[in-house]
């Protein structure tokens, strides 16, 4: 098999969307970039893990299928073959083939294939010379496409076992987090307590975002017992921190609005999802917001991104745990019953499109988001989409970065795991680079960026 030679790529001609433009889109074409390392190293590993999982768990998967065994085996063999082909096409820099979607409930084929056929440079996009956002999203959409085109395994989530194992492995941390949030709620005796605890839960929600299976290749990052103890030290690594401005705005919402809705555009399942639930429970139980909408992914995405199925699985798992976890799960399920919590699946979040074109491409979703008084965008992929995955100068203002996207006041909570950033002085960037040249890709630094 021919593997991409980095030196060959360095001497190749720059594609038009990168060359000579003032602000280019991030692409694996640059061999010294994290995007390049992602497509070359991380993405093939993720595909290999899916293939290994299917091979190792053949019998379990066949047991869960309703079809007779012979037919399901053929189905599974076909899926494994197609996944291997996808990996080989990636590693040999083939073009991204139009998705063959026969009966997708997502109805996203025309939007996807427009992106794939037109390309930015007028020719079919290739794995190593196209915008990173397109290429990385394509891999996950193509994986789902392979499953949805099968006969008996259409709805199999090839990452669900990793997400479930993560929750089981993090059980102690989750117990501590739920108990801690409960304590915070019960010790409020003044407005300043309400504010201080709100800020603590925002910080917890931020740092929980370090746990990302697409970055770690499937391994849990947080070791039992360490998460809450680390928060204070981690807070010194928040490079832009607008949490006080955020609180002032939340106070203003209390005065100005009768109905107060919070939208959380979620990232990862596991610890981050539970931290977001803790934050939402705090907001609703202290009447900071009447309702919280959780926007989740409609299909398995970036390994650990939260789907509706993940949320249901986690709540039912917690329901059977120690009493404190049971109470927490019951509270969440109660809020879901009363619609104070709502889970919304939207197809736009699994398109390779940035958010500044949402108003034009999906006006219904834009209007839905506008109903909220505050939107929280969690994690790196949301951040990349907020900034259109452009290689912005670090000093770009958050407002410019968003390019007019503003359905409601919004905050980005993100640990930095990709080479895109704004609102950061260039002197800070130089200092961080001297400390660690990979500071933008490890999730060791965080941002709380708010725009009213
Ligand atoms: Mg994620």
Automatic annotation (TrEMBL):
It comes from the Eukaryota. Its cofactor is Mn(2+); Ni(2+). It catalyses: beta-D-fructose 6-phosphate = dihydroxyacetone + D-glyceraldehyde 3-phosphate; beta-D-fructose 1-phosphate + H2O = D-fructose + phosphate; L-glutamyl-[protein] + S-adenosyl-L-methionine = [protein]-L-glutamate 5-O-methyl ester + S-adenosyl-L-homocysteine. Pfam families: ARMT1-like_dom (PF01937). The keyword Translocase does not apply. Residues 38-426 form the Damage-control phosphatase ARMT1-like metal-binding domain. Subfamily III proteins have a conserved RTxK motif about 40-50 residues from the C-terminus; the threonine may be replaced by serine or cysteine. Metal-dependent phosphatase that shows phosphatase activity against several substrates, including fructose-1-phosphate and fructose-6-phosphate. Its preference for fructose-1-phosphate, a strong glycating agent that causes DNA damage rather than a canonical yeast metabolite, suggests a damage-control function in hexose phosphate metabolism. Has also been shown to have O-methyltransferase activity that methylates glutamate residues of target proteins to form gamma-glutamyl methyl ester residues. Possibly methylates PCNA, suggesting it is involved in the DNA damage response. PANTHER family: DAMAGE-CONTROL PHOSPHATASE ARMT1. This is Sugar phosphate phosphatase. It comes from Daphnia sinensis.
